[in-house]
Amino acid sequence: MLAAIADVAAGLPAVCYLLAYGRLGLFVQVDGREGRSRRGLEDAADLQERALAAFAQDRLPPPGRLVVADSFVGVRRWRWTGDPPDGGLEGLAGALDWLADPVVRA
Predict the structure, then answer these.
(1) Total number of domains constituting the chain
(2) Strands across the sheet with 76-80, in order?
(3) How far apart are CA 42 and CA 104, in angstroms?
């Protein structure tokens, strides 16, 4: 896991949270201005917790990986590389919804 604060534009800081652990890849960049990063980081922590619990409880069929990229200045995507593959353009929110879907638990 790597966490950092970096400027993405002149005077626009971003908090970067990068995690590659087992079958989870989580690449999140949230607005680093005071008071704006909390929600995005909470969503990233929630997704990390839910995904790792789902893997540990064998609720997601192997093989497959969950990869999420979510940036407040650009790309928002998520992808399940397993069988059947799935994905979307909603980034963290879409991946959280997908993990909550009863089909995933089957």
Answers:
(1) 1
(2) 2-9, 12-21, 24-31, 66-71, 76-80, 86-88
(3) 22
pLDDT tens digits, 90-103: 999 999 999 997 56
Cα–Cα distance for residue pair 94/98, rounded to 1 Å:
6
Which domain range does residue 83 map to? 2-105
| End-to-end CA, the chain | 30
Alpha-carbon distance values, 27 to 4, 40, 61, 79 (Å): 12, 11, 22, 12
Query: What's the predicted TM-score (pTM) here?
Result: 0.86
Helices (H), the chain: 38-56, 91-100, 102-105
Model confidence over 79-91: pLDDT tens digits? 999 988 999 999 9
